[in-house]
Write a structure and sequence with these properties.
With 559 residues, the protein is α/β, with parallel strands linked by helices. It contains 21 helices and 16 strands. The chain has an eight-stranded mixed beta sheet with strand order 1-8-7-3-4-5-6-2. The chain has an eight-stranded parallel β-barrel with strand order 9-10-11-12-13-14-15-16, surrounded by five helices. α1 packs antiparallel against α2, α3 crosses α4 and α4 runs antiparallel to α5. It starts with a strand and ends in a 6-residue tail after the last helix. The model has no long low-confidence stretch (mean pLDDT 86).
Amino acid sequence: MITVQGKGVSAGVGMGPLYFYQRAKTTVTRYTVTDAEAEWARFKAAQATAIEQLGALAEKARADAGDEAAMLFETHQMMAEDLDYEEAIEGLIKEEKQNAEAAVDDTAAQFAEMFAAMDDSYMQARAADVKDVSRRILGILSGTVEGGIASEVPVLLAADDLAPSETVQLDKSKILGFITAGGSGSSHTAILARTMGIPAIVGVGDQLKPEYEGRFVIADGGTGAVIIDPDDDTRARMEKKREEQLRLQRLLETLKGQENITRDGKTIRIYCNIGSPEDVHAVLTNDGGGIGLFRSEFLYLNSADYPTEDEQFEAYKKVLSDMGDREVIIRTCDIGADKQIDYFDLPKEENPAMGLRALRISLTRPDFFRTQLRALYRASAYGHLGIMFPMVTSVWEVREAKKMCEAVKAELKKEGIPYSDHVQVGIMIETPAAAVMSDRLAYEVDFFSCGTNDLTQYTLACDRQNNDLGRFYDPHHPAVLRLLKMVADNAHRAGIWMGICGELGADLELTETFLAIGVDELSVTPRSVLPLRNAVRMTDTRESAQRILDELAADHHRI
């Protein structure tokens, strides 16, 4: 028996034969072309095919793993037609007389090197993306068929790492789990594995030897252990663990339609985070009580130009109509930082996470903001709408945004266009400034929703995109938990509710803490609804509330 240790990034136990991913190899031939225009046309045809394929992959990812997974491929679509990328290839073909394959290969190497050299970790990650996009175009140009799994039985798939397109295209019925040499908890493979419910382990390095292929292996996505040729006792123990996990999953299915209520009678709302109208199906399938965060920026990311008022209205209307009488909270456009769009023509910034983004863009571009607000209020006539402003730091920002809301309602009323008079207006608490000022902000709005990803980043001065920071980026840090308690207390004093819509909301280690500090709503991915409901129903806050509050007051790091 051989045990290899990696990092578990998607829970579950996979058991079966080990199989090394067979990646199609594309050999780049190089020659001088005589008809540069014809060669450029050949590239453009391959580019168009690649964009079409990526669109199909986005839809497959959305069906398999939700909107965030689909966004990976929509980003790749934009990268494939990026003007700088295209112009670099055009120059090599038309000026240097390179063939299309050589031009794409050289441009990919140049752009990947440029991204990798940047200080920003998000931009560094784009190096892998440009390689993946270029590999797809090269495959189309050369007629190379994508690699895959040449196995008749399901396997534990091992690889150096897997690009998003490779992961999504695999036949999921043949995959018992992923094991990769590289990667991290935030790698594409890890994200897709979690959303698809497949066990995954990353970071095993060179510990998996080629001679292990075909041997029986157990992968524990919870602990990160990979066991080759397990003995009988280990195999029996892991089979029991797997059966217990499957039993729990079946148990969770029975919780559909049940209340989110603790043993001592405390109720909490469990809502869902989505990014497109197509995600409503997952919300309803997983019995989400409402939508606590609809990321409206995906409408902009998926468009070649600013979406019109009518285009936005139709999208918002569909979500509200499909959700019936369940609440839908739509966040106004949160572009900037790690979500950049060319047609916004935003200035280049040294630190975009702290620059012109989110509500700051809306307030400095009133026509743009007005268009979105008109679409939102028009859609409010078709359901139970809440509007939420992101990246707030000051009272004046909220008052300016509310003035725009009132102006839009006056316009619609004058034009005879129906809208609801019962739209709740709230803000995201994702900066330390907003948390500290929450005692005053609470009297300006109807609710708070805490974006814990950014709140942790700004509170701890840790870039959440930088995987090298490791334990320094700690969402369980007492400073973050204290801020959340302060926000909850200030919300309740003002008579409004407070929720959490960041990833921390689905962290079952903190469910008890959130209940103790008075969180009213948790908005999570659709797949997290039932596990979270189970955790809530197993909690008795009478036994823990005072202890947790005392520990927070004493600055005792309990997690």
